[in-house]
Amino acid sequence: MTGIQITPLARRPELAPRIYDMEDSWPEFSGHDSLAWLLYPRMVAEFPEYVWIATDGDEVVARAFSLPFALHAPGRDGALPAQGWDRVLMWAFSDQRRGVRPDTVSALEISVAKGRQGEGLSGRMLAAMREGARAGGFAELVAPVRPSGKPAEPDSPMAEYAYRTREDGLPYDPWLRVHVRAGAVIDSVAPLSMTVNGTLAEWREWTGLPFDEAGPVYVPGALAPVHCEPERGYAVYVEPNVWVRHALGPAGPARAPQSSETGAVAEEAR
Protein backbone atom coordinates (compact mmCIF):
# COMPACT_ATOMS: atom_id res chain seq x y z
CA MET A 1 0.00 0.00 0.00
CA THR A 2 2.98 2.36 0.40
CA GLY A 3 3.12 3.11 -3.33
CA ILE A 4 -0.49 4.30 -3.57
CA GLN A 5 -0.98 8.02 -4.21
CA ILE A 6 -4.39 9.63 -3.63
CA THR A 7 -4.92 13.09 -5.11
CA PRO A 8 -7.74 15.28 -6.42
CA LEU A 9 -8.09 15.06 -10.18
CA ALA A 10 -7.39 18.80 -10.37
CA ARG A 11 -3.77 18.00 -9.53
CA ARG A 12 -3.53 15.13 -12.03
CA PRO A 13 -5.72 16.27 -14.96
CA GLU A 14 -3.86 13.93 -17.29
CA LEU A 15 -5.67 11.05 -15.57
CA ALA A 16 -9.17 12.30 -16.50
CA PRO A 17 -9.42 10.10 -19.62
CA ARG A 18 -8.46 7.05 -17.53
CA ILE A 19 -10.81 7.47 -14.59
CA TYR A 20 -13.15 4.74 -15.91
CA ASP A 21 -10.42 2.42 -17.15
CA MET A 22 -10.52 0.21 -14.07
CA GLU A 23 -13.07 -2.58 -13.74
CA ASP A 24 -15.34 -1.89 -10.76
CA SER A 25 -18.11 -3.76 -8.94
CA TRP A 26 -21.10 -1.54 -9.77
CA PRO A 27 -24.03 -3.45 -11.32
CA GLU A 28 -24.66 -2.54 -14.96
CA PHE A 29 -28.09 -0.99 -14.37
CA SER A 30 -26.73 1.57 -11.89
CA GLY A 31 -24.97 3.45 -14.67
CA HIS A 32 -28.31 4.22 -16.32
CA ASP A 33 -29.58 6.72 -13.78
CA SER A 34 -30.52 9.67 -16.02
CA LEU A 35 -28.75 12.24 -13.85
CA ALA A 36 -25.57 10.20 -13.84
CA TRP A 37 -25.58 10.12 -17.65
CA LEU A 38 -26.04 13.87 -17.77
CA LEU A 39 -23.85 15.14 -14.95
CA TYR A 40 -21.00 12.72 -14.26
CA PRO A 41 -18.93 13.95 -17.23
CA ARG A 42 -19.51 17.52 -16.01
CA MET A 43 -18.20 16.61 -12.56
CA VAL A 44 -14.88 15.58 -14.08
CA ALA A 45 -14.72 18.76 -16.17
CA GLU A 46 -16.13 21.33 -13.72
CA PHE A 47 -15.38 19.97 -10.22
CA PRO A 48 -12.02 18.17 -10.61
CA GLU A 49 -10.92 19.31 -7.14
CA TYR A 50 -13.73 17.15 -5.69
CA VAL A 51 -12.93 14.07 -7.79
CA TRP A 52 -10.31 11.83 -6.20
CA ILE A 53 -8.15 9.25 -7.88
CA ALA A 54 -5.82 6.61 -6.45
CA THR A 55 -2.90 5.25 -8.41
CA ASP A 56 -0.40 2.51 -7.74
CA GLY A 57 2.44 3.32 -10.07
CA ASP A 58 0.75 3.80 -13.43
CA GLU A 59 -2.35 1.80 -12.46
CA VAL A 60 -5.62 3.49 -11.49
CA VAL A 61 -6.86 1.48 -8.50
CA ALA A 62 -9.71 3.61 -7.08
CA ARG A 63 -11.80 6.70 -7.75
CA ALA A 64 -14.16 8.84 -5.70
CA PHE A 65 -16.63 11.56 -6.59
CA SER A 66 -17.95 14.31 -4.35
CA LEU A 67 -19.67 17.66 -4.85
CA PRO A 68 -20.08 20.89 -2.89
CA PHE A 69 -23.59 22.26 -2.37
CA ALA A 70 -25.56 24.60 -0.13
CA LEU A 71 -27.33 22.34 2.36
CA HIS A 72 -28.30 25.31 4.55
CA ALA A 73 -29.76 27.44 1.75
CA PRO A 74 -33.33 28.75 2.19
CA GLY A 75 -35.82 25.95 1.65
CA ARG A 76 -33.23 23.27 2.46
CA ASP A 77 -32.39 24.37 5.99
CA GLY A 78 -29.86 21.64 6.67
CA ALA A 79 -32.26 18.73 6.10
CA LEU A 80 -30.81 15.92 4.01
CA PRO A 81 -33.22 15.14 1.15
CA ALA A 82 -35.27 11.99 0.72
CA GLN A 83 -34.15 11.97 -2.92
CA GLY A 84 -30.57 11.47 -1.75
CA TRP A 85 -27.99 10.93 -4.47
CA ASP A 86 -30.12 12.34 -7.30
CA ARG A 87 -31.08 15.48 -5.37
CA VAL A 88 -27.49 16.28 -4.37
CA LEU A 89 -26.48 16.21 -8.04
CA MET A 90 -29.35 18.57 -8.89
CA TRP A 91 -28.62 20.95 -6.01
CA ALA A 92 -24.88 21.09 -6.64
CA PHE A 93 -25.15 22.01 -10.30
CA SER A 94 -28.06 24.37 -9.67
CA ASP A 95 -26.03 26.14 -6.98
CA GLN A 96 -23.05 26.41 -9.32
CA ARG A 97 -25.18 27.92 -12.10
CA ARG A 98 -26.81 30.46 -9.77
CA GLY A 99 -23.65 31.39 -7.91
CA VAL A 100 -24.86 30.06 -4.55
CA ARG A 101 -21.97 29.54 -2.14
CA PRO A 102 -21.69 25.90 -0.98
CA ASP A 103 -21.49 25.05 2.71
CA THR A 104 -21.32 21.22 2.61
CA VAL A 105 -19.62 18.51 0.58
CA SER A 106 -21.41 15.29 -0.31
CA ALA A 107 -19.59 12.10 -1.19
CA LEU A 108 -21.27 10.39 -4.15
CA GLU A 109 -19.20 7.36 -5.06
CA ILE A 110 -16.15 5.40 -3.97
CA SER A 111 -15.14 2.62 -6.34
CA VAL A 112 -12.20 0.23 -5.99
CA ALA A 113 -10.78 -1.78 -8.85
CA LYS A 114 -11.59 -5.46 -8.89
CA GLY A 115 -8.56 -7.34 -7.68
CA ARG A 116 -7.70 -4.52 -5.25
CA GLN A 117 -10.66 -4.89 -2.93
CA GLY A 118 -9.97 -5.97 0.62
CA GLU A 119 -6.92 -3.70 0.90
CA GLY A 120 -8.63 -0.85 2.74
CA LEU A 121 -8.64 1.42 -0.29
CA SER A 122 -12.25 2.50 0.13
CA GLY A 123 -11.49 3.69 3.66
CA ARG A 124 -8.47 5.62 2.39
CA MET A 125 -10.56 7.30 -0.30
CA LEU A 126 -13.15 8.28 2.30
CA ALA A 127 -10.38 9.70 4.49
CA ALA A 128 -9.06 11.69 1.51
CA MET A 129 -12.49 13.19 0.87
CA ARG A 130 -12.89 14.06 4.55
CA GLU A 131 -9.51 15.75 4.69
CA GLY A 132 -10.09 17.50 1.37
CA ALA A 133 -13.42 18.90 2.52
CA ARG A 134 -11.89 20.07 5.80
CA ALA A 135 -8.97 21.69 3.95
CA GLY A 136 -11.50 23.41 1.70
CA GLY A 137 -13.07 25.12 4.72
CA PHE A 138 -16.13 22.88 5.03
CA ALA A 139 -17.41 21.81 8.43
CA GLU A 140 -19.32 18.74 7.25
CA LEU A 141 -19.13 15.92 4.73
CA VAL A 142 -22.34 13.99 4.10
CA ALA A 143 -22.95 10.87 2.05
CA PRO A 144 -25.97 8.98 0.68
CA VAL A 145 -24.45 5.60 1.44
CA ARG A 146 -25.23 2.50 -0.60
CA PRO A 147 -24.91 -0.25 2.05
CA SER A 148 -22.70 -2.99 0.67
CA GLY A 149 -24.53 -5.86 2.39
CA LYS A 150 -28.03 -4.79 1.41
CA PRO A 151 -28.20 -6.66 -1.94
CA ALA A 152 -28.30 -9.88 0.09
CA GLU A 153 -31.54 -8.65 1.72
CA PRO A 154 -33.54 -6.85 -0.98
CA ASP A 155 -36.83 -7.25 0.90
CA SER A 156 -35.56 -5.89 4.22
CA PRO A 157 -36.83 -2.34 4.81
CA MET A 158 -33.91 0.07 4.67
CA ALA A 159 -35.29 1.82 7.77
CA GLU A 160 -34.62 -1.40 9.70
CA TYR A 161 -31.42 -2.48 7.96
CA ALA A 162 -29.69 0.92 8.30
CA TYR A 163 -29.94 0.93 12.08
CA ARG A 164 -29.14 -2.73 12.68
CA THR A 165 -26.06 -3.15 14.84
CA ARG A 166 -23.64 -5.84 15.94
CA GLU A 167 -22.95 -6.80 19.55
CA ASP A 168 -20.19 -4.15 19.69
CA GLY A 169 -22.71 -1.44 18.77
CA LEU A 170 -21.27 -0.78 15.32
CA PRO A 171 -23.50 -1.01 12.21
CA TYR A 172 -24.23 -4.46 10.87
CA ASP A 173 -23.48 -3.31 7.34
CA PRO A 174 -19.76 -3.29 6.38
CA TRP A 175 -19.79 0.00 4.44
CA LEU A 176 -21.84 1.82 7.06
CA ARG A 177 -19.35 0.46 9.57
CA VAL A 178 -16.45 2.07 7.67
CA HIS A 179 -18.22 5.44 7.81
CA VAL A 180 -19.05 5.18 11.52
CA ARG A 181 -15.50 4.13 12.37
CA ALA A 182 -14.30 7.19 10.45
CA GLY A 183 -16.47 9.40 12.66
CA ALA A 184 -19.83 9.54 10.89
CA VAL A 185 -23.29 9.28 12.42
CA ILE A 186 -26.30 7.80 10.64
CA ASP A 187 -28.79 10.59 9.95
CA SER A 188 -31.74 9.16 8.02
CA VAL A 189 -32.89 6.97 5.15
CA ALA A 190 -33.12 8.42 1.65
CA PRO A 191 -35.93 6.23 0.23
CA LEU A 192 -35.77 7.74 -3.28
CA SER A 193 -32.02 8.16 -3.63
CA MET A 194 -31.61 6.87 -7.18
CA THR A 195 -34.18 6.06 -9.86
CA VAL A 196 -33.43 3.94 -12.93
CA ASN A 197 -36.18 3.37 -15.47
CA GLY A 198 -35.99 1.55 -18.75
CA THR A 199 -37.85 -0.51 -21.30
CA LEU A 200 -38.13 -4.24 -20.73
CA ALA A 201 -35.58 -4.76 -23.51
CA GLU A 202 -33.14 -2.45 -21.74
CA TRP A 203 -33.55 -4.21 -18.42
CA ARG A 204 -33.03 -7.57 -20.12
CA GLU A 205 -29.81 -6.25 -21.66
CA TRP A 206 -28.58 -4.81 -18.36
CA THR A 207 -29.36 -7.87 -16.24
CA GLY A 208 -29.80 -10.94 -18.45
CA LEU A 209 -33.15 -11.57 -16.75
CA PRO A 210 -36.43 -12.16 -18.66
CA PHE A 211 -38.51 -9.28 -17.22
CA ASP A 212 -41.69 -10.91 -18.48
CA GLU A 213 -43.81 -11.08 -15.30
CA ALA A 214 -45.51 -8.25 -13.46
CA GLY A 215 -44.29 -7.38 -9.99
CA PRO A 216 -40.95 -7.44 -8.21
CA VAL A 217 -37.84 -8.67 -9.98
CA TYR A 218 -34.79 -9.54 -7.89
CA VAL A 219 -31.73 -8.23 -9.68
CA PRO A 220 -28.20 -9.07 -8.47
CA GLY A 221 -26.63 -5.98 -6.94
CA ALA A 222 -29.93 -4.16 -6.37
CA LEU A 223 -30.77 -3.00 -2.86
CA ALA A 224 -34.50 -3.45 -3.45
CA PRO A 225 -36.65 -5.27 -6.03
CA VAL A 226 -37.14 -3.73 -9.46
CA HIS A 227 -40.82 -3.15 -10.28
CA CYS A 228 -41.78 -4.67 -13.64
CA GLU A 229 -44.84 -3.65 -15.71
CA PRO A 230 -44.85 -5.96 -18.79
CA GLU A 231 -48.22 -4.73 -20.06
CA ARG A 232 -46.91 -1.18 -20.09
CA GLY A 233 -43.48 -2.11 -21.40
CA TYR A 234 -41.23 -0.74 -18.66
CA ALA A 235 -39.58 -1.47 -15.32
CA VAL A 236 -38.47 0.95 -12.59
CA TYR A 237 -35.90 0.66 -9.83
CA VAL A 238 -36.01 3.07 -6.90
CA GLU A 239 -32.96 2.67 -4.68
CA PRO A 240 -32.96 3.59 -1.00
CA ASN A 241 -29.70 4.87 0.51
CA VAL A 242 -28.64 5.87 4.01
CA TRP A 243 -27.60 9.43 4.84
CA VAL A 244 -24.56 9.76 7.09
CA ARG A 245 -22.93 12.93 8.42
CA HIS A 246 -19.23 13.44 9.06
CA ALA A 247 -18.52 16.45 11.28
CA LEU A 248 -15.18 17.95 10.24
CA GLY A 249 -14.75 20.77 12.71
CA PRO A 250 -15.09 24.54 12.27
CA ALA A 251 -15.05 25.78 8.69
CA GLY A 252 -12.26 28.12 7.62
CA PRO A 253 -11.67 30.17 4.46
CA ALA A 254 -12.64 28.10 1.43
CA ARG A 255 -9.80 26.76 -0.69
CA ALA A 256 -9.23 23.79 -2.98
CA PRO A 257 -8.87 20.36 -1.35
CA GLN A 258 -5.29 19.16 -0.94
CA SER A 259 -3.77 15.79 -1.80
CA SER A 260 -3.96 13.07 0.83
CA GLU A 261 -2.14 9.89 1.63
CA THR A 262 -4.13 9.21 4.80
CA GLY A 263 -3.68 5.80 6.39
CA ALA A 264 -6.07 2.99 5.58
CA VAL A 265 -9.28 2.32 7.43
CA ALA A 266 -9.14 -1.35 8.41
CA GLU A 267 -12.30 -2.52 6.69
CA GLU A 268 -12.96 -2.58 2.95
CA ALA A 269 -16.29 -1.18 1.72
CA ARG A 270 -17.16 -3.82 -0.84
Describe this structure in words.
The chain contains six helices and nine strands. It starts with a strand and ends in a 23-residue tail after the last strand. The model is unreliable at 251-270 (pLDDT under 50). The chain is α+β, with helices and mostly antiparallel strands. The protein has one domain: Gcn5-related N-acetyltransferase (GNAT) (Aminopeptidase).
> What Rg do the Cα atoms give?
18 Å
Helix-strand pattern? EHEEHEHEHHEHEEE
CATH domain fold name:
Aminopeptidase
User: Which superfamily, in CATH terms, is the homologous superfamily?
Assistant: Gcn5-related N-acetyltransferase (GNAT)
Number of helical runs?
6
Please summarize the sheet with the most strands. Answer: 9 strands, mixed
Low-confidence stretches: 251-270
Search tags:
23% helix, 270 residues, Aminopeptidase, 6 helices, 9-stranded mixed β-sheet, 9 strands, alpha+beta
Describe the SSE topology.
Blueprint: E1 4-8, H1 34-46, E2 51-56, E3 59-69, H2 84-98, E4 104-112, H3 121-135, E5 140-145, H4 158-161, H5 174-181, E6 184-199, H6 200-207, E7 215-217, E8 226-229, E9 234-247
Parallel strand pairs: 4-5
Antiparallel strand pairs: 1-2, 2-3, 3-4, 5-9, 6-9, 7-8, 8-9
